[in-house]
Specification:
- Two copies of one chain form a homodimer.
- By secondary structure, the first copy, chain A, is α/β, with parallel strands linked by helices.
- Chain A has one domain: SPOUT methyltransferase, trefoil knot domain (Alpha/beta knot), CATH 3.40.1280.
- Helices cover 33% and strands 17% of the residues of chain A.
- Chain A contains seven helices and seven strands, in the order αβαβααβαβββαβα.
- Chain A has a seven-stranded parallel sheet.
- Chains A and B meet through helix 2, helix 4 and helix 7 of A and helix 2, helix 4 and helix 7 of B.
């Protein structure tokens, strides 16, 4: 390759200045991520498994899951080994316990009084509560929440897929808290 | 219901202050969203269809798609009717044309020189270029890009699903540009 002054520019024109570095090592997180995900019994195990994968990538270490659904390893990948998943018959008792432990309970839903995800400031110790795909967050859980955040929607369909919405909310939490220190 | 001073508090304690308002009307967007999504031939039509749904929710009106894949209406929902999807045998010619029309080409990938999605400032006229699930963005497309952004990863697996990553990037674009004015 000719790096002489005359040839450099035209050579560079044909080369990409971006070279793949796929599957980089994750960022160092000095402590456990203080974000807990809570999911009710979901309609789709694929959605739940997608949430597990995203949680793993976001460094989440604990999920609270309603029912006893099967997590699909093909979808969740090795997040299934990183994220501790606690199964509960119903969510309210464990949510009350987490609240008593100093967690803020934040639901992802469209409700009266819901705040835009973009403007909401997450506390470090947060339980992010996801809703069922069709029914959303049930009334017994809604009344325990400290805040509800919603994702602005600009077109059709009028709501995001539940796992997509959870991914956006986890991204926003990580954007605010980085490695969590 | 008793709203007298004595009863109000205990009544409120048992009620949720958040009441469902699911599937709200989308936010008014005065003009067309100036974000274009570009997807290569993907491995999974479900991933592509999920991207179409998210694009619809984000008010995106145009996608450039490599190959002639089938979009699954059950996944994409009525976004399939809102988003104009242009199919192309290969992406570079249409990307060059969009660049000439003033669009900035931003790839979503882990590369040398890639910037953190959280810090990157999207121009209004942006083509967001997604990569293939396994292979990422191909070399012929990489060398056309103005910027590459990557999503920080804090755990395993070491990369997000392609449709999840696209959703996070679309969320970040919308967070910065709101209704696009």
């Amino acid at each position: 390759m000719n790096w002489s002054a005359g040839g450099a520019c035209s050579t560079l024109d044909r080369m990409s200045s971006f070279v793949h570095q796929r599957h980089k090592s994750p960022l160092d997180q000095p402590g456990a991520r203080e974000l807990v995900l809570a999911c009710p019994p979901m309609r789709s195990n694929v959605n739940l498994s997608r949430i597990v994968r995203t949680a793993g990538c976001c460094g989440v270490q604990r999920m609270i899951v309603g029912g006893k659904p099967k997590i699909d390893r093909k979808v969740a990948r090795d997040a299934i080994d990183q994220v501790q998943i606690d199964f509960h018959r119903t969510l309210p008792p464990v949510l009350r316990k987490l609240k008593a432990d100093g967690y803020e309970l934040v639901g992802l839903e469209q409700t009266t009084g819901s705040q835009c995800l973009c403007d909401f400031r997450f506390k470090l110790r947060t339980v992010m509560v996801i809703g069922h795909e069709r029914l959303g967050i049930t009334e017994d859980v809604l009344k325990l929440l400290d805040h509800v955040v919603e994702i602005p929607v600009y077109g059709v369909p009028h709501s995001h897929n539940a796992a997509t919405a959870a991914a956006m909310a986890m991204y926003e939490y990580c954007r605010q808290h980085g490695t969590g220190v």
